[in-house]
Amino acid sequence: MGEHPLTVVFVRTGGIGGYCPFFMPVSRKRSRTKQVAVNTSFTFTDEKIVVGQLILDMPEHFKLTGSGSVASYKDVRQMKGNFVLRGELPDVGFVSSYLKGEG
User: Fold this and answer.
1) Is the torsion defined by CA of 96, 100, 101, 103 positive or negative?
2) CA nearest neighbour of 61 among 95, 30, 27, 33
3) Of 32, 44, 87, 93, which residue is least crowded by CB atoms under 10 Å?
4) How far apart are CA 71 and CA 52, in angstroms?
């Protein structure tokens, strides 16, 4: 990649229906009413990937934040890293409906 790292910033807010391929099964009815925000920034070089920020947020239901890094990602045997994730789940009933397949 040369001498300069590549930095990517991704921000999106939309209905959960837009994320359905990642969160199946999700009913179409519930998909229209829920919003999910994704905000992340990461940088990678020839030797390291650094996730400066990761935020997944569905207001009043859940929020996942994190950051970390992975070194030597090109060689699985040498790869090492550290990630810190923090989750908030103020609405446990919301999650249980998805686990039951009703969401």
Assistant:
1) negative
2) 95
3) 93
4) 14
Model pLDDT, residue 81 = 93
Q: Which amino acid is at 1?
A: M
Instruction: Round to whole Å and give the CA distance between 53 and 55.
Output: 7
pLDDT band (50, 70, 90) for residue 25: very low
Q: Sort residue 75 into left (φ over 0), alpha (ψ -120 to 50) or beta.
A: beta
- Of residues 21, 100, 16, the one with CA closest to residue 59: 16
Question: Do residues 83 and 73 lie in contact, with contact meaning Cβ atoms separated by under 8 Å?
Answer: no
Pinpoint the alpha helices (H) of 1-103: 28-31, 92-99
Read off the tokens for 75. 């060689």
Q: pLDDT by residue (tens digit) across 72-85?
A: 888 889 989 999 99
